[in-house]
Write a structure and sequence with these properties.
By secondary structure, the protein is an all-alpha fold. Helix content is 77%, strand content 0%.
Length: 262
């Protein structure tokens, strides 16, 4: 049976059209000269200039980047500690509770997480702002980092650490010099996943942000509620281009390494 039967071709065509046609239309209309996003009158780059000149977008993007970098780094560090505890400490008091607390954000709706954090900050009279936003992002991204790192630690050969300790290293030094370099790809994957989740978050951020801590997704959502503007199209197209470029570069690097290894 041929893989490219007429049915498969039609299904694949409709599938890709459903997924990517709206994105392609958005990119095309980001170059529309008209103020109306649905009426094409000519090709122009002016909305990209307007988008880069928009101070609100620039400030929101800077907040988003700072929060994502800080929260992903801290979440990955906590994820390493949590993963080591879950994988190596087989039995300890409160293990079930600790495991549940670590993995709960994975299955809990973001609305519940946002409301819970909001009530926590309100009860302790903590003013919402950059600090609360970072804490919230660490809370829900740490669970994903823990899962990624734990999956690598489970397969790690402990005899390597034991050999390092036989040669004079302490347990902590053996972890830093032997274990951490071996699980570095998982740690990097956990960091990038936490970074992506933080950059993309809207729901939780809406509950815990404050004056001066509006992220770019929240800024875009607030602007769209008043109507889609050509600047939003230009901003979206720019983000799509950035993500596409990163994916292409990562793919090229991966294929290059695969060729070198072979």
């Amino acid at each position: 049976m041929s893989r490219f039967s007429p049915f498969n071709v039609v299904a694949l065509t409709f599938g890709f059209a459903f997924l990517y046609l709206p994105i392609m239309l958005l990119v095309v209309y980001s170059f529309n000269e008209n103020d109306l996003v649905t009426v094409w009158t000519g090709f122009s780059f002016k909305w990209y200039g307007e988008m880069f000149a928009n101070r609100g977008f620039r400030d929101a993007a800077w907040v988003t980047i700072r929060v994502a970098l800080i929260s992903s780094t801290v979440a990955t560090a906590f994820g390493i500690l949590a993963a080591v505890t879950l994988v190596r400490a087989k039995v300890f008091f409160g293990r079930t509770l600790f495991t549940g607390m670590v993995y709960t954000p994975l299955v809990m709706p973001e609305v519940i997480t946002g409301i819970s954090l909001l009530l926590f900050f309100v009860n302790f009279n903590i003013d919402r702002g950059m600090e609360t936003l970072i804490i919230a992002h660490i809370t829900f991204t740490m669970a994903f980092a823990t899962v990624v790192i734990s999956s690598r630690l489970i397969d790690f050969d402990l005899s390597l650490e034991e050999a390092a300790m036989d040669l004079g290293c302490s347990r902590f030094e053996a972890f830093l010099r032997v274990t951490l370099p071996n699980i570095a790809p998982a740690v990097a994957a956990a960091w990038f996943l936490s970074l992506a989740l933080s950059l993309d978050d809207v729901v939780v951020s809406q509950f815990v942000n404050g004056p001066g801590s509006t992220t770019l997704p929240i800024k875009v959502l607030s602007s769209v509620r008043l109507g889609v503007s050509p600047e939003i199209n230009a901003l979206s197209a720019t983000l799509i281009g950035m993500v596409t470029s990163v994916v292409i570069v990562a793919t090229i690097i991966q294929k290059t390494r695969a060729v070198q290894d072979s």
